[in-house]
Amino acid sequence: MRLAVEHTTHYQYDAPVHYALQQVRLTPKDRPGQQLVGTWAVEVEGGERQLHYTDHHGNGVDLIAVGGGSRELVIRCRGEVDLVTFDGVIGAHRGAMPLWTFLRPTPLTRAGRGVRALTAAIGRDFASDIERAHALSALILGRLAYRTGLTDAETTAEQALAGEGGVCQDHTHIFIAAMRHLGHPARYVSGYLMMNDRTQQDATHAWAEAHFDHIGWIGFDVSNGHSPDQRYIRVATGLDYRDAAPVRGMRYGAAQENLVVQLQVQQ
Asked: What are the backbone angles phi and psi of residue 163, rounded to the nearest 5°?
């Protein structure tokens, strides 16, 4: 399947921004089963694209600087990707980060009382660890309904689990914390998902991958209750959201921002 993506991230500031620096992870990865068609375009208005580099997780990163009293920043990405489904299986571990790194908890994915109780509720009566992981995914969605506006980028797995709802980022952090607690390396994935019921979207998507002996990495989209297929484009991976955030940075001054995202993913 070939998917076309058009993605605009528009920041508007209520006061001039004298300096800001943004790390942009919006270029999909080339890998078996996922290949860019031609050039992936990244265009910037209101800032300067200073360089492109590959980070320690193998993610493509554009460094964008904003200065000179800008009041808005627009980042436009577009391109096409060919995809082949492997039923969620990514395969053997690759890259500079050793596999044991993905067992390490982070502030957003630390397993506290709530996550440990969740793993205890699952039990061990399963034919395989993969079957248990799918059961864990279903349990998380059952405990934490998909609801926007209740969490933010700094909400931890424990905080989300104790709340009344969350989004894909929260589901992913809880799953990662639980899988690491069970002894499986796990990582965060940000990317694009082609929806079956609409073309226009207002955010990118997030899901998890867990590592299993003799098979490798397998994806789990907790929010949708299945493993990623050929509708999913992997863009960035990391230990948690902070490593794989589509746009993350800093700025000087007291300006408040308004963010509008326009996204189309279609065949």
From this structure: -90, -170
Kindly write down the DSSP assignment for every residue of 148-211, as one continuous string.
TTS--TT--HHHHHTSS-B-HHHHHHHHHHHHHHTT--EEEEEEEE--SS-SEESS-EEEEEEE
User: Which backbone phi and psi does 46 adopt, to 5 degrees?
Assistant: 85, 5
**Measured between alpha carbons, how far is 51 from 64 in angstroms, rounded to an integer?**
8
Helix (H, G, I), strand (E, B) or coil at 170: helix
Q: Which domains are assigned to the chain?
A: 2-82+247-266 (2.60.40.2250), 88-244 (3.10.620.30)
DSSP state of 31: B
pLDDT digits (tens, 9 = 90+) for 24-78: 999 998 888 999 999 999 999 999 999 999 999 999 999 999 988 889 999 999 9
Q: CB of 66 within 8 A of CB of 251?
A: yes
Task: Give the pTM.
Answer: 0.95
Alpha helix (H) ranges present in 144-218?
157-161, 168-181
At 251, the pLDDT band (50, 70, 90 cuts) reads confident
